[in-house]
Structure formats: structure tokens, C-alpha cells
Amino acid sequence: MHHHSNCLKRPICLLIVPILLIVSELACTGTLAEMQVRGQPIFQCPTAIPVIQPTTPPGFPTAIPQPTLTPVVIRPPQPFYLDDRVEAGGIQFRLSNVAVLSGTQPIAVWQFDVSNRRSTPYEFFPAGQMVVSQLADGQIGQWGASEAAAREAGIAFRYESYDLNPDETQTVQMAAYLPSSNPAQFVYHLDPRDSAMTRVITWVNQPNPYC
Questions:
Q1: For residues 159 and 146, is the Cβ–Cβ distance under 8 A?
Q2: Structure confidence by residue, pLDDT tens digits, 105-147
Q3: 3-class SS of residue 98
Q4: CATH number of 68-207
């Protein structure tokens, strides 16, 4: 006797579902080459060092040195934060405006901005590549965006791929049903063919404490 109805409750099945969605989408578009992102994700922000007042003899003018800037660099496996503009292979990604709507089932909503800074087109399929990967109560899985959740949340959402020419930016609003709690972590798969958690950008649902 087979128990297919229990499959989605298991972590291995949750990992496979987004990849199957992407494969299905690629069967129609056939543009896998344009979805490839190479290079390590990175985010850098300046953090000001406090000004130190120098000690001078009485009667002499006090020179106040300009604050120097120390760059703060974040790379995997360290996660990124809300509003961080993460760059990988000439593509820039940003997660922002995360909220949870209450109802019969919690709905996570968020905004995802993608900018193409490279010289070739980029295509992405947010419904299959980006998911909520961890909840505030500790649950780990992959909860992806859906049209049903978007309709209930009252936001527009295209369940399809997006094409970006060089120097173009696309903003996508997304919504996903959660079993409980609030989203604590999101991931975006940079390689749409790979379900492993090695080629991903990971965000935690909190502001950057360094910038």
C-alpha cells in the first residue's frame, strides 16, 4: 500500500517539490541557460567607526578627524538579512517587507527584487526557486509561493518565469501558506536544477545588525 499523501510532510519530499516545479516550467520555456547564476553571493555595507576626540593642549584648536569606514562583508554560510542587496554573478537580489496575515492558516507575504547587472539576459522562476525554509517555532521545510495564497492575501502574483534584460529590475510580491508560526528564514536556489542547499542565498527575517 502506498502512502503518497504523506510525502509532503517529509523533508526529502519538500526539497524535491520546488525542483519539479522548475522542471515543469522549463519544459515550456526551455531557457535553463539564462537561469544560471555563477559566483558566490556577497553583501557589503560600510560601518562607521565612532569619532575619537583627540587631546590637545589648552589654547590650541581641536582637530576632529573624519570617521573611517570599515566594510562589513557577508558571505555564505552566514545568512543575509532583510533589505540586504545580495549580489551573485552580476545578479542582485533583495528580500523585504515580510509580513504574516492571520486567518484559517497563516500566510507569509514578502517582496522580492531582482536586478540584472550583467550583459546577458536573466530568467528566474520565483514560485519554484524561492521558499520559506524555516519557521520561528523551529520547523524546517520548504513552503513555496502559490496563486491561492496570493489571492487570499490580496496581492498580484504571476505563477510563471520572469525575463530580465541587462540593467532591468523586477519586483515580485509573493505569498505562501504556512502550517504555523512566522517565517524565520528564506532561501533562493541559484541553480534551478539542484535541490541541495549548497547553491542558495539564505536570508533571516530580521534587519541587518551591522548596517
A1: yes
A2: 999 999 999 999 999 999 999 998 999 999 999 999 999 999 9
A3: strand
A4: 2.60.40.1240
